Amino acid sequence: MPDITCIGRYWPGDSPIHRMDARAKLLLSLAVMAIAFVAQTFCSLAVVAVFVTGLFVLSGIPLGSALRSIVPLIFIVVITALLNVLFVQTGDVVAHWWVITITTGGIRMAFFIALRLVILLLAMSLLTLTTPTLDITDAFEYLLGPFRRFGLPAHELSMMMGLALRFMPLFVGELTTIYRAQVSRGAVLSKWRVSTLTALLVPLFTSAFRHAETLSAAMDARCYHGADGRTRLHPLSYTSLDRNGVIAVALLLALTVAANFLPL
């Protein structure tokens, strides 16, 4: 099993994307994801894809590493595409068996949705690859801060998200270690069988619970009490990089909407 760059793992760098404020990056990433849903044609979706690819080039992160980072979540793309193939019944019939009918419209929609989901995952991956986990956690808490007056546990939610982001690379690293250990013992894990999944998942979850228990003990030892005494990010102030990011995303929205009306 090859090493996988996972969502949640920080890729150090000094690019303009890395230097942007974490809160601005979080908001702009959400905006790019929303624009991906605005795209209703392959042409408009291609505009978003080119934009996201350009961001990876600007950040200095190889696109191959970015694609490897979303491998653990690729099953979401596959399942969604299969559902569209099976349930979208438009266009000409390609194949029919019993109650299953596959049409050209279903295949087209499956490919479109799969491409959109890959773009969404890459946009989320770019955020985590160019921003330290603690910065993402603090940015998330900062943006949820106004909702505290309505009883929303902003700190607890941001902490849960931060722990999840930190555990994802840990899970992948542990899975790689367990796989290599099982292979070194002579286990044959080339086929996805129940025995294969058991040999990998049981040690993985045992290790995960052990790490969670260690983290809990460390927090208790430090007498952790919510958000008390934490160091905060500096007050939000838009720099030229953040302003350029807003302009670029606004331009992306305009081009995407315009591309929806191209006669293609």
Question: How would you characterize this protein structure?
Answer:
This protein has helices at residues 16-19, 22-38, 42-59, 63-69, 74-87, 104-130, 133-144, 154-184, 194-221, 240-259; strands at 93-97, 100-103. The model is unreliable at 1-5 (pLDDT under 50). The protein folds into 2 domains: 1-131 and 234-264, no CATH class; 154-233, no CATH class. It is mainly alpha-helical. It is 67% helix and 3% strand. β1 and β2 form a beta hairpin.
Structure summarized in a few sentences:
This protein has 264 residues and is mostly helical.
* Percentage of residues in DSSP E strands: under 5%
Count of structural domains: 2
Order of helices and strands: HHHHHEEHHHHH
Q: What do the pLDDT scores average to? A: 76
Number of extended strands? 2
- Residue share in helix: 55-70%
Q: In terms of per-residue confidence, which ranges show pLDDT below 50 for 5 or more consecutive residues?
A: 1-5
Radius of gyration: 22 Å
Furnish the topology, listing elements before pairings.
Layout: H1 16-19, H2 22-38, H3 42-59, H4 63-69, H5 74-87, E1 93-97, E2 100-103, H6 104-130, H7 133-144, H8 154-184, H9 194-221, H10 240-259
Antiparallel strand pairs: 1-2
Helix pairs in contact: 2-6, 2-10, 3-6, 3-10, 5-6, 7-8, 8-9
Tags for this entry?
single chain, 264 residues, mainly alpha, 2 domains, two-stranded antiparallel sheet, globular, disordered N terminus
